[in-house]
Design goal:
The protein is of the alpha/beta class. The chain has 14 helices and 5 strands.
Length: about 350
């Protein structure tokens, strides 16, 4: 599916399925709406999947791995070699995210969409060996940005063909809090310093430099805030574009896609600006500790399930939500109704 095909396939969620899901929740023998966001989440998925028979048993985490040329500006504590190292560790179950994912039955699909180093990670749809330095020019061409979005769409399609019923998003790429902050600043029209944090451990001086680099990049490239593809091409990264494609592909295929932390939320914002309707198919797992974390979710009108002060990325927050979702789905599908236990139903007062 191309980007244009995905965009044309995205329509409203099924409101009848949502209403049926609410009716079922209200028949279950417990105080009305007492599970809060757990109930709302199941209802949202019913609308997305188009049926009150919600199915979230088979879960996939898609992790886009890419490098960013802006690293040469000293905006990170570590070098690009860490991208490749962590990406391979995804395959060997040696990261926080892989351990967390295994604990809740989630399968991982790391994708090399633009790392500077070839690894054992799937690189069949690699766009290039890293982006250019955004302080000196565009990160990529517009054509590369579209290709990267379509990599994400294809990965969503592949997972759905394999029977996955909910997708989570993650990323790995040294320097991607810099590109994410740049994208968010432009798309939301807010000052760079308001959306830029220390990432993986910068000093105060390092943060000041990071903010100035992003300002310089935006000034040099002049991305169009009304054109999300232009923004991601000029000051973004391959991982952001690829994840935007996952959100668009999931919406086109009517499967929920879970937002992880800051980078994933920036990608969700890109997808929403490309096709506003796709936001109805997203779910926010948690609010990142990075300065822009809550700001982006508010712009997307998303209410996160968790606030655990996390800022790891890599899909860790997205999979942290899944055990709660599994519990909600189990209550929804297997708990007795008021009628079944011969009890008078609660009614709204």
């Amino acid at each position: 599916m191309t980007l244009d095909e995905a965009r044309k396939s995205i329509g409203p969620v099924n409101k009848n399925a949502e209403e049926a899901a609410w009716q079922h929740w209200d028949k279950i023998a417990k105080p009305l709406r007492s599970l809060g966001k757990l109930e709302k989440g199941i209802v949202r998925i019913a609308g997305i999947q188009g049926t009150p028979q919600v199915d979230v048993k088979k879960k996939a985490l898609i992790i886009m791995c890419a490098d960013n040329g802006v690293v040469e500006e000293g905006v990170t504590q570590t070098g690009q070699e860490i991208t490749a190292l962590v990406a391979e560790n995804f395959l060997d179950n040696k990261t926080c995210t892989t351990i967390m994912a295994a604990s809740c039955g989630t399968d991982l699909f790391p994708v090399d969409i633009g790392m500077v180093t070839d690894t054992r990670v799937d690189r069949s749809e690699k766009i290039a060996y890293g982006t250019a330095n955004i302080r000196k020019g565009s990160a990529m061409t517009r054509e590369q940005a579209i290709r990267a979005v379509e990599v994400g769409i294809h990965k969503a399609e592949e997972c759905v063909r394999q029977g996955y019923r909910i997708l989570a998003t993650g990323e790995m790429g040294i320097g991607n809090t810099t590109t994410s902050s740049a994208v968010i600043s432009v798309l939301l029209g807010v000052p760079v310093e308001m959306v830029t944090g220390k990432g993986a451990g910068l000093s105060d001086k390092g943060l000041d430099r990071k903010i100035q680099v992003i300002r310089d990049a935006i000034e040099f490239n002049q991305p169009d805030p009304k054109d999300a593809l232009d923004v991601v091409a000029k000051v973004g990264g391959f991982d952001l574009a690829g994840l935007a494609g996952v959100f668009l592909g999931g919406a086109a295929l009517r499967v929920p896609v879970v937002i992880d932390g800051l980078i994933s939320a920036a990608a969700a914002l890109i997808a929403q600006r490309i096709c506003p309707e796709c936001a109805s198919y997203m779910m926010a797992s948690h609010v990142s500790r990075e300065p822009a974390g809550r700001l982006v979710l508010e712009a997307l009108k998303m209410d996160p399930w968790l606030d655990c002060e996390m800022c790891l990325g890599e899909g860790s927050g997205a999979v942290a939500m899944f055990p709660l979702l599994d519990m909600a789905a189990l209550v929804y599908s297997s708990m007795e109704t008021f009628e079944g236990i011969h009890m008078d139903a609660y009614v709204p007062l």
